[in-house]
Design goal:
Blueprint: E1 36-41, E2 45-50, H1 67-78, E3 85-86, E4 95-101, H2 104-112, H3 114-117, E5 118-128, E6 135-144, E7 150-153, E8 160-171, E9 175-182, H4 189-196, E10 219-227, E11 234-238
Parallel strand pairs: 4-10
Antiparallel strand pairs: 1-2, 2-4, 3-4, 5-9, 5-10, 6-7, 6-8, 8-9, 10-11
């Protein structure tokens, strides 16, 4: 823990005078997890880093292995009476930080006050094309059609208001790496908004991409910051941009 924030970067840049606290894992120490990394666990919450290609929760189409099922099975081995509840989701091909609740009460506290509890959500997106503006804000009203595809309504106020901010981290003639901050948390918000500005996420054929250099959706949930629903403390979890997202710049 650095400056009262949980940091998981192995190459985090330290500065003279910083206080660093190394937290020992207790109950989570014996958890054996596949396709994800355990970032944090206490009696109320579990925070993980999900790999790309893994569903967050089961779909209606089948019994695919999910982050929820893997984590629930691992927790049950240690605590047979333990509970696990889904708080939010990431798309199958999106990697990054997720959290789960250990009780229905904590789940409800988080979900019912999501916009107030979650203070920061940062994603990293590799998009098609050279984004000219180094930073920007995208605002629209999002709706979902009968095919379950989300789109920006052309009628102001017709749908759920969505706000996305971005800044360019690096770019070349074919691709740009963006740091994307969600100011609202709508379904497929980032994917729709980046398509709206003409820079679809690489690998996102559903939302306009024509290339797939990484053979996956090039989107990673890098930072999740929220107020702990039980303790009131600020919880900050950060993971680096996956190396595969940067291969197009080499």
């Amino acid at each position: 823990m650095i400056r009262d924030q949980f940091v998981t970067w192995f190459n985090y840049q330290l500065e003279p005078g910083m206080d660093v606290i190394v937290l020992k894992k207790k109950t989570s120490q014996s958890l054996t997890l596949r396709k994800m990394n355990l970032l944090y666990e206490d009696e109320h919450l579990i925070v993980i880093e999900k790999s790309a290609g893994l569903l967050s929760v089961a779909s209606k189409k089948g019994n695919d292995e999910t982050a929820f099922s893997i984590l629930k099975s691992a927790v049950k081995k240690n605590y047979p009476n333990a509970e696990l509840h889904v708080v939010h989701r990431l798309d199958r091909d999106t990697s990054g930080v997720m959290m789960f609740a250990k009780s229905k009460e904590i789940q409800q506290k988080l979900q019912d006050n999501w916009d107030a509890v979650v203070t920061k959500r940062i994603y990293y997106a590799l998009v098609e094309g050279c984004v000219k503006n180094m930073k920007g804000e995208i605002v629209s009203s999002l709706k979902e059609n009968k095919s379950l595809k989300v789109y920006s309504s052309k009628t102001p106020g017709d749908g759920q208001k969505a706000i996305t901010r971005y800044r360019v981290l690096k770019r070349n003639s074919r691709y740009s790496m963006l740091e994307v901050e969600l100011k609202t948390g709508r379904k497929n918000q980032i994917r729709v908004h980046l398509q709206d500005i003409g820079h679809s996420i690489a690998g996102d054929k559903k939302y306009g991409a024509t290339t797939n250099p990484l053979r996956r959706l090039a989107l990673h949930a890098g930072i999740l910051e929220f107020t702990h629903p039980a303790t009131g403390k600020c919880m900050h979890f950060e993971t680096p941009i996956p190396a595969i997202l940067e291969t197009v710049f080499r």
